[in-house]
Design brief:
The complex is a heterodimer of chains A (155) and B (503). With 155 residues, chain A is mostly helical. Chain A has 5 helices and 2 strands; from the N terminus they run αααββαα. Chain A has one domain. Helix content of chain A is 79%, strand content 3%. Helix content of chain B is 72%, strand content 0%. Chain B is globular, with a radius of gyration of 22 Å. By secondary structure, chain B is an all-alpha fold. In chain B, helix 3 runs parallel beside helix 12 and helix 5 packs antiparallel against helix 19. The chains are: A mainly alpha (155), B mainly alpha (503). Chains A and B meet through helix 1, helix 2, helix 3, strand 2 and helix 4 of A and helix 5, helix 9, helix 10, helix 12 and helix 18 of B.
Chain lengths: 155, 503
């Protein structure tokens, strides 16, 4: 059920991106909004899809993916909504114009801090523990033996 | 691995100074030593195509970083930023997100699938997932077309760099560069490639860090650089640069989601010795990529500020941003190191392409026709030579057409591989029909649309390119066709593949 919902979110996000591209052919002002929100949605829902195990996503990761979607898409939306003030004497934040810094924080700086930590901290519990690997290899060995028996039986 | 075509629009200024030549010679000598050492370890086709699946985490992360970045990151990219401002940064900006995407969506599953089936190529994973030689063969065709285009583009760029440093002439530079890469790629395959990548990646990262410091010093600090640019060109440092939000966000979409389909990069997951080492993969990869990519922004932005203040003469061509900046603002030793970094980036990328192309020809296409070659190691070496000669020939004779071939690369990889592989490995009900339909859509749209757009028979809105349209279309086609054929899904998934997908 959870995987179906996540797949639905991936598909919905891609539809939003497609709508953005369709709108760009008509010069629609909302096209960039669709591309920004749709791409962020596609990225986070694809990551969520990859983290589903036995119909479940670790609660920490659920929070990370939802929060990072809101943060990344939010940064893009703020930059799209704010009036341009990059002329002479414009406001700088960390050495770049305000809107640009917001986008850089949303798309590069914060994700590069959050995702590697979230990945490492949840790796054992939600990706691949020693025990998972052992069980997988045992099951693969059983399958291989069964295949051998089937092949010998066929001969 | 990013389109290189802007690099090809201008030759580089002459760099034939003794110190630069010495640094470059030293660089090539070290590559030769490492390659010779690694070549002795290459004994089987598994060594040749996946490094014997015995590579450690540090090696994997740095090699992946080196293969991800072509010469574009060092020359074309800063030139693009110099031209369109921060919009040009959106090609590398998704790096933090696309690394995380690759980790969650592909890393574990590809690594475990490779172990379960002894897979050597990315199309083979598609073939195994859908129990479909046809899907594997079609994906291999996409890989092969893109690889030749990309290799030709990169070899031309390498020829330009070698000519600029050693004064060999362009044709001489192309064939000398091809010969050097070929020597270690044929003898040592990806194993030699991986270990030279580690050295090359280190050169790239070191060059990048030094150049950022030089750029900030030359421009008087980031605040001063920004103030200077904002007074002269208000849009340049805006979030979308001077190209507008559609261009920037379209780059963002294609270079983030599309990263899931780049075989020369994702193929390296097969090589990791212990899958549990993936725990720290994302951290290492993110730091490595971030470090090497700093140069991309620093030179583009600093060059713009220096041109505005008159410290640097206006550039005749945007791609001269890096060489002109280095010649005028950096010590000669740094210039030599950075140009070795450019050569390193190109060589690491070409080696990965050679290997991916040779694998498609030697392993995937015969498999699509139900055949297996007798001596895959020998054929791998022969096809590597064949592909390199074709690509170098194309680079030498096709002029501007080579840039056109390079444009196809990223989009073709993304639209043919990403849907079937990345979503397919995470969705049990994805179907063979969905995979084949999406691969055909990616191939057809990218090749036909790209050709029509290049010859201006169709006109796309500003900022929209055929790669983005192909990618979004093939993704949607994959979902829709899989949905309509979902009744077949259960019959197309082998038990061992399902086990890997559920682990």
């Amino acid at each position: 059920m959870l995987k179906s919902i996540v797949l639905g979110l991936v598909f919905l996000s891609l539809l939003v991106v497609a709508t953005g591209y369709a709108g760009s052919f008509a010069g629609a002002a909302w096209s960039p909004w669709c591309l920004a929100i749709g791409t962020c949605g596609a990225l986070m829902s694809l990551m969520a899809l990859g983290s589903v195990r036995r119909g479940h996503i670790t609660p920490v990761l659920r929070v990370v993916f939802v929060a990072m979607f809101l943060f990344c898409a939010g940064c893009f939306c703020v930059a799209l909504a704010m009036p341009a003030n990059e002329g002479a004497g414009g406001t700088l934040l960390f050495g770049f114009p305000l809107r640009s810094t917001i986008v850089l924080l949303g798309v590069a700086i914060v994700p590069i801090l959050v995702f590697p930590l979230a990945w490492a901290l949840t790796f054992d519990s939600s990706m691949l523990s020693e025990d998972d690997l052992k069980k997988l290899r045992e099951a693969q060995a059983v399958m291989a033996r069964a295949n051998d028996v089937r092949r010998h039986g066929a001969k | 691995m990013i389109p290189l075509h802007p690099l090809l629009q201008a030759s580089l200024p002459r760099m034939t100074q003794p110190l630069i030549v010495t640094v470059a010679l030293l660089y090539f000598a070290i590559v030769a030593i490492i390659a010779t050492w690694a070549t002795r370890k290459t004994k089987t086709e598994r060594d040749f195509f996946v490094g014997g699946a015995g590579v450690g985490l540090w090696t994997l992360a740095i090699a992946k970083m080196a293969a991800s970045l072509s010469g574009f990151s060092f020359v074309g990219g800063p030139g693009l930023v110099y031209t369109i401002g921060l919009a040009g940064v959106f090609i590398i900006l998704p790096g933090a997100l696309s690394n995380a995407l690759g980790a969650w969506v592909l890393s574990k599953k590809l690594r475990l699938l490779g172990e379960a089936r002894g897979l050597l190529t990315v199309p083979a994973a598609i073939g195994a997932r859908y129990r479909s030689p046809a899907a594997q063969g079609l994906a291999a065709v996409g890989v092969l077309i893109a690889v030749i285009g990309y290799m030709a583009t990169n070899l031309l760029a390498l020829g330009i760099v070698i000519d600029a440093i050693f004064g060999t002439g362009l044709a001489g530079g192309i064939w000398i560069g091809t010969g050097i890469i070929l020597a270690y790629s044929v003898a040592g395959g990806i194993l030699a490639g991986i270990y030279t990548d580690v050295f090359q990646g280190s050169v790239m990262a070191l060059s990048s860090v030094i150049v950022v410091a030089v750029a900030l010093k030359a421009g008087g600090g980031l605040h001063h650089i920004s103030d200077t640019i904002m007074a002269a060109d208000a849009k340049f440092l805006g979030p979308w640069g001077s190209a507008g939000p559609i261009t920037a966000l379209s780059f963002f979409f294609v270079f983030s989601v599309g990263s899931l389909g780049q075989p020369n990069v994702i193929h390296k997951f097969y090589m990791l010795k212990d899958p549990r080492q993936l725990k720290w993969y994302l951290l290492l990869m993110s730091v490595a990529l971030l470090t090497a990519q700093l140069i991309y922004i620093a030179i583009g932005v600093a060059s713009k500020a220096l041109v505005i203040t008159g410290a640097l003469a206006p550039l005749a061509k945007a791609d001269q941003a890096t060489p002109m900046f280095l010649l005028h603002a950096a010590p000669v030793l740094v210039a030599g190191l950075v140009f070795s970094g450019v050569a390193a980036a190109i060589m690491a990328t070409v080696n990965s392409f050679m290997n991916a192309g040779a694998a498609a020809l030697t392993l995937d296409l015969p498999m699509a026709f139900g055949k297996k070659l007798d001596n895959e190691l020998r054929w791998g070496r022969i096809t590597t030579v064949l592909l390199a000669i074709i690509a170098a020939g194309v680079a030498q004779i096709s002029g501007t057409l080579v840039a056109f071939l390079g444009i196809f690369g990223w989009g073709l990889f993304a639209s043919t591989i990403a849907p079937a592989l990345a979503i397919g490995l995470n969705w049990e009900r994805a179907t063979r029909a969905g995979a084949i339909a999406s691969i055909c859509t990616g191939l057809g749209l990218t090749l036909a649309g790209g050709t029509l757009a290049y010859f201006k028979i169709i006109k796309l809105p500003t900022g929209v390119d055929i790669a983005s349209l192909s990618l979004i279309t093939s993704l949607l086609v994959f979902f829709v066709v899989s949905w309509f054929t979902r009744a077949n899904a259960a019959n197309e998934l082998d038990a061992d593949i399902q086990l890997v997908m559920e682990t």
